[in-house]
Amino acid sequence: MEMEYREITSIEDPLFKKMHVLMQDVFPAEEILAFELWREPLEDPGIYVYVALQEEEVVGATEYRYYKDFNVAMTDFTIIGKDGLGVGPFLARKRLEHLHELAKKAGNELAGMFAEIYNPYLVEEVRFGGIKSMDPYVRREVLSHLGYRKVDVYYVHPSWKDDGEAVTGLDLCYMPIGEKVDDISADLVVQFLKRYYSVLPNKPRSWEEMVKDLGAKERVALSVI
Questions:
Q1: What's the pTM?
Q2: What is the DSSP string of 62-94?
Q3: Which structural domain range is residue 187 located in?
């Protein structure tokens, strides 16, 4: 049976409960937003949450955004709940199709997409519910094949707990759409990061310094992940 790509816009949607359970099965507990705290993000028209359904079972999910003034997207997360079903390629294809539609409606051709990617060489092993497709080493290889490249900066980001702590162990990556490029506008990276983390008032000093250093540059290299 073919998978369906179904949008979730409310915590009242029965599929959201299934997705939240799946997140708890796959992600470390400290990275999961509490059920009730999802209400606002799901109602935000600029945040898109979709699940992959097979016979009404949630077998995957993804959250992403499109910034029409920057003409770039950001993938917040991708969850593969079962191996061997092609969930990853299905979500990646459907997401990109939707983003191209959003860009077209805004009078643009999508320029690229950001993503934060676990660097397994910097963090302790995370099992991700035993799903092989979610293994950080596997995901990096897959994302590399999709065209993602590392933004060449020592990356930290503010904790989503908004406690002012810096989170490390991830790389900021970017997937150019269309032409192959070896660098990216530093100003684009800075403006994107400021917008993306604007909801967190308590920024760690290391994040502020990273953004300041980026702001002093014109271009930032993109390297192999």
A1: 0.90
A2: EEEEEETTTTEEEEEEEEE-STTS-HHHHHHHH
A3: 113-225
